[in-house]
Design brief:
Helix content: over 70%
Strand content: under 5%
Largest sheet: none
Mean pLDDT: 87
Order of helices and strands: HHHHHHHHHH
Low-confidence stretches: none
Length: 270
């Protein structure tokens, strides 16, 4: 791989007129985002710093990824595995913050996202739904990992809330000699259920309330609309499967981690 020619090609693409059009569109979107930040400040929601940081960070990261993809199209297939592993690590770091204070939250998040998203990516690549190429594995794999990250964050947040708000009930059950997993079964169930609400609602509204970007893009590119619809459903099914596996693994492992060897509930830091 000739790095100099690769970067020269990326630089040439960055100077194309369409990029300037994109920057003007970003400016328009930024105005809308600024209104939201301003409303947060006006209503004293205390979210403006997080909202502004997330917006700027998202812009920088997606542009960096766009530049990186230009380089990735020329690298060997093996690099896609390295990139996806890096994405899993990043997803772990971001989602773990929702469960700050839970014992073993980083390790469990890494395992849950890695296994949940990894199984789906490997299986669907083997099935041919994801082409075994860098240009296919990285974008589609990133969607699966990102949604697993979101669902893991929701599961951690809900599990922590369930433990905090039901500590007395849990401790009474444990003191009466009930098996820890039986005492925490409802907490696990509620965590999994709450974390899957967004993806379940997306499946319910698929093709009715909204037409997802991949399907719309394929149709605009001239692809058979029926095949575009089928492939979009496959993508949603992958997201659902990866999210479900991630949520279940994360919640079950946490339910074991919060119980001590003496079968007592650990104290969870705020």
């Amino acid at each position: 791989m000739d790095l100099s020619s690769t970067f020269a090609d990326v630089w040439t693409r960055a100077q194309e007129p369409v990029v300037m059009d994109g920057l003007l569109q970003v400016a328009a979107a930024t105005v809308l985002a600024t209104v939201v930040v301003g409303l947060s400040r006006w209503r004293k929601l205390q979210l403006e710093t997080e909202l502004a940081t997330a917006f700027v960070r998202g812009f920088v990261q997606i542009v960096a990824m766009g530049l990186l993809i230009g380089v990735l199209l020329t690298v060997p297939l093996a690099w896609s595995g390295v990139i996806l592993i890096g994405m899993v690590a990043g997803a772990t770091w971001i989602s773990r913050q929702r469960g700050e204070g839970l014992p073993g939250v980083t390790r469990i998040s890494l395992l849950a996202i890695g296994v949940g998203a990894g199984i789906v990516i490997v299986l669907m690549t083997w099935a041919g739904a994801i082409e075994a190429t860098v240009r296919s594995l990285v974008p589609v794999g990133s969607m699966v990992i990102a949604n697993a990250m979101k669902i893991n964050g929701l599961a951690l947040d809900r599990f922590k809330e369930e433990i905090d708000s039901n500590r007395d009930v849990i401790e009474v059950g444990l003191s009466l000699g009930a098996p820890p997993q039986a005492v925490l079964a409802e907490r696990v169930r509620d965590s999994v259920r709450a974390s899957l609400i967004p993806v379940v609602d997306s499946l319910k509204s698929l093709g009715w309330v909204w037409i997802p970007g991949i399907m719309a893009g394929m149709i605009l590119a001239g692809e058979n609309p029926i095949y575009a619809a089928l492939y979009q459903f496959v993508i949603m099914a992958m997201i659902f499967a990866a999210g479900g596996l991630t949520s279940v693994i994360s919640s079950l492992l946490l339910s074991r981690e919060v119980i001590t060897e003496a079968e007592q509930l650990q104290k969870i830091d705020a």
